[in-house]
Amino acid sequence: MKVSIVISLVISLVLISSAAATPAASQTGVPGPGITSNRRHMTDFLNEVNQRVTGLTRQWRGAWVRDEIDDLVDLYTEDAVLILAEGEPIRGHRRLKQYFEESLATLGGAQLSETDFHASGRMALMSGPFSYLIQGENGLSWQVTGTHVTVFLREGRDWKIRSQIFRAN
């Protein structure tokens, strides 16, 4: 009986010491050599998402400039919110379509630029300067500039605009 207790004790000590000698990098949540690989994956992810949402903003600009209202609205999620400097937030496809039908005839030359970008999981955020032209009834036009914040949401394989805020200077 003493021999079996001693053998059990020796086996337990071997198992405990081998677990303690396990490299930190192979333990979940412990920093180690895998950090470089994780950073590379994150960089690849951010680059891919940035390319996709930048492409989406190009589509947005093209649809805006060509007054393609249905194509423009399709770039937004069904429950999207557009917040402008004046007025109430515009929510959902129906209201977005109504807004663009009323407004695009006098708006032109929209441009969004990126000075900040981040993504995590199914959501991405881009912000930076924007500008567009307003054409008055008397033939005069003026440029509106400011800052935009655009939030994108991945739906399946596609990215769509979930929220946009435009703050004029």
Quick tags:
single chain; alpha+beta; seven-stranded mixed β-sheet; 4 helices; about 170 residues; about 35% strand; globular
- N-to-C series of helices and strands: HHHEEHEEEEE
Report helical residue fraction.
Answer: 40-55%
Low-confidence runs (pLDDT<50, min 5 residues)?
1-31
How many DSSP E strands? 7
Largest sheet: 7 strands, mixed
Q: What do the pLDDT scores average to?
A: 81
Query: What would you report as the Rg, rounded to the nearest angstrom?
Result: 27 Å
What percent strand?
Answer: 35-45%
Distance between the termini: 86 Å
What does this structure look like?
- It is globular, with a radius of gyration of 27 Å.
- By secondary structure, it is of the alpha+beta class.
- The longest helix is centred in the first third of the chain and has 32 residues, at 34-65.
- Strands 1, 2, 3, 4, 5, 6 and 7 form a 7-stranded mixed sheet that branches.
- Helices cover 41% and strands 36% of the residues.
- The model is unreliable at 1-31 (pLDDT under 50).
